[in-house]
Amino acid sequence: MLERLSWRRLVLELALCCIPALLLGAFFGYLPWFLLASVTGLLVWHFWNLLRLSWWLWVDRSMTPPTGSGSWEPLMYGIHQMQMRNKKRRKELGNLIKRFRSGAESLPDALVMMTEVGAIFWCNGLAIQLLNLRWPDDNGQNIVNLLRYPEFNQYIKKRDFARPFNQVLNNGRHLEFRIMPYTDGQWLMVVRDVTQMHQLEGARRNFFANVSHELRTPLTVLQGYLEMMQDQPLEGVVREKALITMREQTSRMEGLVRQLLTLSRIEAAPALSLTDKIDVPLMLRLVEREAQTLSQGRHQISFMVDPALQVYGSEEQLRSAMSNLVYNAVNHTPEGTHIQVKWEKVAHGARFSVQDNGPGISPEHLPRLTERFYRVDKARSRQTGGSGLGLAIVKHALTHHDARLSIESVPGKGSCFSFELPERLLVSDKVLAAQA
């Protein structure tokens, strides 16, 4: 429509330019000169508008083209409409790119877009963090120049991307690389941090290995005595010794299974509401009697308990945490050791501590004490029946109560195991008064 309108205007402009020249030529003569002058004027006018358009395109470059008249009006209007359409498309494309980048940044994986020769042209924030890229400084750099690992270089060169590639970085991170061609000459590399997965797999292997090892010893003892009893009847002192040993080993396996079940139950427990009121002083009186029975007079055990200090939480888990700390002090300190247990109110909550003046623990062992089956002295732990699960139970039980186990120990002077429950878990004096 605009094209036909433009041609009509051109013809109309030419006719309007020539009609005065024809009239003047018919009246004064010199018709060719009048026609030449009128056509030249028309050409000059078109040339002027062409210069204005050229100035706008290459010098001015504003969004709005210059105004035009005659046949130039629909041309300028068409250019203006095209500019508006392009502006709208650029805006839509910008919004699309923005949404793509927002989605890519929210992904749990690192994304790197590169050419098939390995030149990077885009990456998300997680890729910068995991791969130590510097963006936009690394734009155009080859990926093998930034990740200098021979195995990764071979993976890129082989171009066999059917299976993911795992690489351990210098900082100890385990990364899984997947590369997918998504268009001609371009690759998408997805990098996932699988460090925690490797750690969990290692912990699982160690857990089963430790459980197998812990159960193998008592089972071997039981099997040996059973084979002995099968070969020949046991009588007298030998029979009594065999029965006592088998009973001890059975109790040891039973205790190990019980602690494993306790640890599993605590780990699998959902977030606690922490609304059950716990009479900790009453609980500690029972723990004190059990500790005295376990010690059989070999230790000096004293309890300093605030009789009015009660808390909210899980009674089963808190009892497991407190009793394990007390029993560990009894089991793993020599005869004559003084063990002091405190339950007191502090500035930011309630503090439970078990302190002894025993041989203490070397500093290199302290960070690993809460690991499952970890023992400072394996031979002594087996003699006392320790399984290496007590402090792991304590750690997970305290986690559910927003608390953390603190361990202080000086070799030759003793150890102190303690934790603090937050103030929000304390039972207020008003509630205790209403209860009374």
Automatic annotation (TrEMBL):
<dbReference type="InterPro" id="IPR050351">
    <property type="entry name" value="BphY/WalK/GraS-like"/>
</dbReference>
<feature type="transmembrane region" description="Helical">
    <location>
        <begin position="7"/>
        <end position="27"/>
    </location>
</feature>
<dbReference type="InterPro" id="IPR014310">
    <property type="entry name" value="Sig_transdc_His_kinase_PhoR"/>
</dbReference>
<dbReference type="InterPro" id="IPR003661">
    <property type="entry name" value="HisK_dim/P_dom"/>
</dbReference>
<dbReference type="InterPro" id="IPR036890">
    <property type="entry name" value="HATPase_C_sf"/>
</dbReference>
<dbReference type="GO" id="GO:0004721">
    <property type="term" value="F:phosphoprotein phosphatase activity"/>
</dbReference>
<dbReference type="InterPro" id="IPR003594">
    <property type="entry name" value="HATPase_dom"/>
</dbReference>
<dbReference type="InterPro" id="IPR005467">
    <property type="entry name" value="His_kinase_dom"/>
</dbReference>
<dbReference type="InterPro" id="IPR035965">
    <property type="entry name" value="PAS-like_dom_sf"/>
</dbReference>
<dbReference type="Pfam" id="PF02518">
    <property type="entry name" value="HATPase_c"/>
</dbReference>
<keyword id="KW-0997">Cell inner membrane</keyword>
<dbReference type="GO" id="GO:0006355">
    <property type="term" value="P:regulation of DNA-templated transcription"/>
</dbReference>
<dbReference type="InterPro" id="IPR036097">
    <property type="entry name" value="HisK_dim/P_sf"/>
</dbReference>
<protein>
    <recommendedName>
        <fullName>Phosphate regulon sensor protein PhoR</fullName>
        <ecNumber>2.7.13.3</ecNumber>
    </recommendedName>
</protein>
<dbReference type="GO" id="GO:0006817">
    <property type="term" value="P:phosphate ion transport"/>
</dbReference>
<dbReference type="InterPro" id="IPR021766">
    <property type="entry name" value="PhoR_N"/>
</dbReference>
<keyword id="KW-1133">Transmembrane helix</keyword>
<dbReference type="GO" id="GO:0005524">
    <property type="term" value="F:ATP binding"/>
</dbReference>
<dbReference type="InterPro" id="IPR013767">
    <property type="entry name" value="PAS_fold"/>
</dbReference>
<keyword id="KW-1003">Cell membrane</keyword>
<keyword id="KW-0813">Transport</keyword>
<keyword id="KW-0812">Transmembrane</keyword>
<dbReference type="Pfam" id="PF00512">
    <property type="entry name" value="HisKA"/>
</dbReference>
<dbReference type="GO" id="GO:0016036">
    <property type="term" value="P:cellular response to phosphate starvation"/>
</dbReference>
<dbReference type="InterPro" id="IPR004358">
    <property type="entry name" value="Sig_transdc_His_kin-like_C"/>
</dbReference>
<keyword id="KW-0067">ATP-binding</keyword>
<keyword id="KW-0418">Kinase</keyword>
<dbReference type="Pfam" id="PF11808">
    <property type="entry name" value="PhoR"/>
</dbReference>
<dbReference type="InterPro" id="IPR000014">
    <property type="entry name" value="PAS"/>
</dbReference>
<comment type="function">
    <text>Member of the two-component regulatory system PhoR/PhoB involved in the phosphate regulon genes expression. PhoR may function as a membrane-associated protein kinase that phosphorylates PhoB in response to environmental signals.</text>
</comment>
<keyword id="KW-0808">Transferase</keyword>
<keyword id="KW-0472">Membrane</keyword>
<dbReference type="Pfam" id="PF00989">
    <property type="entry name" value="PAS"/>
</dbReference>
<keyword id="KW-0597">Phosphoprotein</keyword>
<keyword id="KW-0547">Nucleotide-binding</keyword>
<keyword id="KW-0902">Two-component regulatory system</keyword>
<dbReference type="GO" id="GO:0005886">
    <property type="term" value="C:plasma membrane"/>
</dbReference>
<feature type="domain" description="Histidine kinase">
    <location>
        <begin position="210"/>
        <end position="425"/>
    </location>
</feature>
<keyword id="KW-0592">Phosphate transport</keyword>
<dbReference type="GO" id="GO:0000155">
    <property type="term" value="F:phosphorelay sensor kinase activity"/>
</dbReference>
